[in-house]
Each structure stands twice: as structure tokens, then as C-alpha cells.
Amino acid sequence: MLSVQSVFYFFVYFACFVVVFMKTEHSQKTHVKKKRCKVLSVYDGDTLHVEWDESAWLGLVHEVKPVKVRLAYIDTPELRYHQAGAVQAKDVLAKMLNGKHVVLEYAELPNGEPRKCDFNRVLAVAHLQRTFLPNININEFLLQKGYARLYPNPDNVVPHQLKRMRQAERSARWWKRGIWRHANAPSRSSGGAFWYIALGILIGVVLMLLLMRQP
């Protein structure tokens, strides 16, 4: 039979576990923030150097520092391993962003710090600002054009963006763009093509019925 002391210690340990667990969960809770930054340089196809403005409340403390940003959800070929497509991904990104301003969507932790990857880079979705045209979602663009692939098990820092990223990669794989040109991607002549054929048949039947009803 368990002693009173054993039961007491059990509940103490259990309470400590619950408190630690709740604090850990709370510390991981984030909310999405936006920050306008100037791109200083492009390191590779998915990493930027930007000017990060650390202005405090009412601008009483103003600090601008260089920060590395890792484009969330995506993974481009590695330059250091001389992987095919690595140079193209970097060149495209540099041409689009060097010296330009972007709006970064990122997850802010309760302590006010942005969530970072294992290599201490801010994880963000970058939007290129354009004056008379809609902004460009850079992460989505790189996926859609086949310069990048979706990162396996990505850190979901901006939840509302994940679906768009998946759709962008699916489009690139379907049309065999960029890195998918010679990859084992789904063929346009199979799989999803069935639905296009079925839709065509359905439209044809409807048109025939409409024509038959005409006097």
C-alpha cells in the first residue's frame, strides 16, 4: 500500500510537471508580425541579409542592425555543395531583391523576439513591395517557378501561408518547372489529367444537350 508520503510526493512532482509543461507551451505561443526591411544582400536562394529596425515604443530607442533572414517553408539547392539550380536560385533572388524593400511576415515570441531557425536566422515570408503593382510573395514565387521545393516538416511560422506554399510547389511539379524538369514529378499525362478529361467530357455532354433542345 502506498504511504501518505509517497502520494504527497507524487502530487508534488505531478504539479511541477504541469507547471513546467504549461510554461513551455506558453513560451512557444507566437503571433504573426510584419516588418519593413531593406535587403542588403542575398546569401543564397533562401537566405537574405536585411536591415532590421529595433525601434522601441514611440521611437525613443532606435537601432538598425543587419540580420540574417531564412525564407520560411522553402529549400533551394545548396551553393556550397554545387547542387544543380543553386546559382540560378541565388541570381534570381538577388536580381529581384538587392537594395529593395520587403515586408517580412514572421512569428514573434512572447519575449518580443522573432522565431529563428537552428542557425539563428529569422524565419519569415518575404513580400517584395511594388509601387503600382501588387506585392510579390517571394517564398511562393520561388516555389511556383521551380527554384525551390517545400521544406520537409517546415516550422509553420505564418500558418495562413502554408496552403499557398503547397499549392505553389504542386504547380511547379505539375508543369515540371525548374528543379522538377528532370525530377520524378507527376506527369501531366496522368493522375490529375483524368479530371481534365472528365471535365471536358462533361462540358461536351452539356453542350450536346443544349443543342438538341434547340428547335
Question: Helices, strands, pairings?
Answer:
Elements (H helix, E strand, L loop, with lengths): L3 H25 L2 E14 L2 E7 L10 E8 L2 E2 L10 H12 L3 E8 L13 E7 L7 E2 H7 L4 E2 L11 H13 L18 H21 L2
Parallel strand pairs: 3-6
Antiparallel strand pairs: 1-2, 1-5, 2-3, 4-8, 5-6, 6-7
Helix pairs in contact: 3-4
- Text of the CATH class: Mainly Beta
> In the residues, how many domains can be counted?
1
Uncertain stretches: 14-28, 187-191
Distance between the termini: 93 Å
Radius of gyration: 25 Å
CATH architecture: Beta Barrel
Helix content: 25-40%
Question: How many DSSP H or I helices?
Answer: 5
Strand order within the widest beta sheet: 1-2-3-6-5
Structural category is: alpha+beta
Q: What is the CATH third-level topology name?
A: OB fold (Dihydrolipoamide Acetyltransferase, E2P)
| Gross geometry | elongated
Beta-strand fraction estimate: 15-25%
Total number of strands: 8
| Mean pLDDT value | 83
Largest sheet: 5 strands, mixed, barrel
One letter per element, helices H and strands E, the order comes to: HEEEEHEEEHEHH
